[in-house]
Amino acid sequence: MKKYMKVIIVYILALGMLFCSCKKILSPADENNRGLSDIYNDAAFAEGLLLNGYVRLPLGSYSFNDVATDDAVSNNPNNNFRLMATGNWSSINNPMDQYTGSFAAIQYLNTILNEADKVNWATSGQYTKEMFNDRVKGEAYGLRALFMYYLLQAHGGWSIDNKLLGVPILTLPLDSKSDFKLPRNTFEECVQQIYKDLDRAESYLPLDFVNIAATSDIPAKYAGKTTVADYNRVFGAYNAQRLTARIVKGVRAKLSLLAASPAFSQGTTVTWTKAADDAAAVLDGIGGISGMAANGVYWYASRNSGEINGLAAGLNPKEVLWRGNVGDGNNLEKDNYPPTLYGNGRVNPTQNLVDAFPMANGYPVTDPAGGYDPNNPYNNRDPRLALYIVVNGSKMGPGGAVIYTRIGTSNDGLNAISTSTRTGFYLRKLLREDVNLNPASTNTQRHYVPYIRYTELFLAYAEAANEAWGPDGKGTHPYSARDIIAAIRKRAGITQPDSYLLSITSKEDLRKLIHNERRLELCFEGSRFWDLRRWKENLTEAAKGVSINNNVYTVSSIENRQYADYMYYGPLPYNDVLKENLLQNKGW
């Protein structure tokens, strides 16, 4: 999508004149301002409506909402997630809000869906106008479904009269004559609308945007109507990273997992079986377990720099289903390197998360069979601990400097200065350690943000399959929940055979392990907060840290989590509840 960004900016400026507010969509145009009718003979201007949906996706950077959970704290006292977790979350102050942005995007998408058939998308080429129209509508339906997913995730909840509600369903553009006081639809109605949009998107879009080489490769719906050149003009590789049918399948899998989860299952008809089947529909497309990326544990890291630096022309690495643009920078490192590496040490992993990493033989640190030594707590641990978290004595950065977090060492020590760790740990995951922040030799490196990783979908399948069929059930698929977790833990470097995994016989025990594996594999990627809520697991576990003084390790709580039970479901914005007379979620 990089090639479209300059165009998008122009469109947004122009469309900002066209769409000045939700309640006043078509204001009388000034002399030189373009109106909606201008899109019919200006395909580029029309496409700006669609591209507005892409621009508004909340995926361009990491949120680090882990700071609102038991996985991390921030040394920034003004961090919104820190304030949220410590008692300042309300319908007026909601860092998790998706309401305004998502509905703004949906308004643009509804407009292009309403008008697309009238647009002259192409003036040359065989059947190109019709194919462009199909592609645009497919993307718009898929994006609308995705924004509705974000709305359900952030704002779905139980009302005071014990109904599981979603948000108002809007499928037509609003104008000055529209009814703006629509009630909230039920959660189930919203889910079914999303499925409907995803099905429509999939019917219009190719599995992937790739160039075809022969007439025989033209899909049946266009066979005999167009040429190879014209097909590639519309559906070719230059569109890579825009929404495809494969990505749509991934969104469907995420929705089904959400809807089948304990927090929502009593208000929907979505089953764990459907959630497993939907995840498998994506995984089967890459060969199942055999398609699992070997570097999925360290896809972001300096050791994987060859792959990252080589990404071009919208190509995806094996681990990634959908991603953002590749760009040079060092902001992640500036924010999260320790002070001695010229960073601000913002995101501090907790002792809680460190304790979640098992021993190298796969046993939890609480199990005597693991061999955990409290006097050498980081020895013989799951290799992912060293990959994701900087502990006392870790080497980090371009020169492999030793980072000491114990008390009385350097500015990296516990609470030494305002940018030091509050927990005894620093973030390593997501950072390129070939970034140098020394003012005398600062550099940048290439980064990208994955929107959907295949590991997330493998874990979704494992969770749903275990709930549907138990540890070893497979439904109609060639792999079980245990098979998936075994492959993930083997890839992570857990000693094989994995005796701990083999010892698990019950759905309940495997559920605990799957939840923990998801916690580890997806840490700092914005999943933990949503997972705890959809599982209805403990939100109030205090964030813990470790103080190391004269080689004595003392674990203590450093930040309480102040959540009430009703906070498993987020609020609707206070102002929208008042203006639109919406029924608020219980407790807010």
UniProtKB/TrEMBL annotation:
<keyword id="KW-0472">Membrane</keyword>
<comment type="similarity">
    <text>Belongs to the SusD family.</text>
</comment>
<keyword id="KW-0732">Signal</keyword>
<dbReference type="InterPro" id="IPR033985">
    <property type="entry name" value="SusD-like_N"/>
</dbReference>
<keyword id="KW-0998">Cell outer membrane</keyword>
<dbReference type="Pfam" id="PF07980">
    <property type="entry name" value="SusD_RagB"/>
</dbReference>
<feature type="domain" description="RagB/SusD">
    <location>
        <begin position="334"/>
        <end position="588"/>
    </location>
</feature>
<protein>
    <submittedName>
        <fullName>Glycan metabolism protein RagB</fullName>
    </submittedName>
</protein>
<dbReference type="Pfam" id="PF14322">
    <property type="entry name" value="SusD-like_3"/>
</dbReference>
<feature type="domain" description="SusD-like N-terminal">
    <location>
        <begin position="64"/>
        <end position="210"/>
    </location>
</feature>
<dbReference type="InterPro" id="IPR012944">
    <property type="entry name" value="SusD_RagB_dom"/>
</dbReference>
<dbReference type="InterPro" id="IPR011990">
    <property type="entry name" value="TPR-like_helical_dom_sf"/>
</dbReference>
